[in-house]
Amino acid sequence: MPELPEVEALRDFLDGHLVGKEIARVLPLAISVMKTYDPPPTALEGATVTAVARHGKFLDITAGELHLLIHLARAGWLRWKDDFPATPPRPGKGPLALRTVLAGGDGFELTEMGTTKRLAVHLVHDPADVAAVARLGPDPLADSFDRDAFAMVLGAERRQIKGALRDQSMIAGIGNAYSDEILHVAKMSPFKLTTSLAENDITHLYDAMRTTLQDAVERSRGVAAGRLKAEKKSGMRVHGRTGEPCPVCGDTVLEVSFSDSSLQYCPTCQTGGKPLADRRTSKFLK
Known about the structure:
- By secondary structure, the chain is α+β, with helices and mostly antiparallel strands.
- It has helices spanning 4-18, 131-134, 147-154, 161-166, 176-186, 199-220, 228-234, 267-270, and strands at 23-28, 49-55, 58-63, 66-71, 76-81, 96-102, 107-112, 120-124, 254-257, 262-265.
């Protein structure tokens, strides 16, 4: 799933390729992709793109008085095209979900692999009209989100740290992959409770979060949209690297599996050398 660094890289890429250009047409090609119907996608025809922003994992393309909000979900992606075939594709065929064509003939496509369709596109007058955007917590890279603001967010309720970092209503933009990476850098168990964190633990975790995300954004900056997924994977220390040696201590990276996801961690770096029990019904280390 694209997370804050990849979405920020896409935002930066689209800012350089869309702003100042006129939209010729927006073609939804999957029944499930458009989550709003008023105004219709045709309302964007002839509008000029004035800005591209990011809200957590959402891309926000402003054109005229409208906002095209895109959430790529788990299996969605954005592909830039310098030109398109003269004949539009048939709706419902293959992974293609939406095509946006500019007046100059270039533009982008949204694709989604697999059978579970979660890619979401909203066309609204205000980003806050999308409930998932309105509920977002602070952006972890915002200047205003300092260490004290982070401490207040963590102290709001008793949670396991892994879940707290991933909760979009607490902190916007961090998902399964980067929460694993942040906790590895912080040398902290994913199931340690937020209420058990000492002041120096909070500072250490905050620094790990900012450093991990900032480094990932810098690695992704300037990378072509088609190569961002590979760049994300190559930069991971423990996430997606079950069975491989930890790059810090050399211990074997282990995994805890859930029904629809998994996490990876290093026992030596994060849990005092003790493996975490697998499956969600087990007792986890605190």
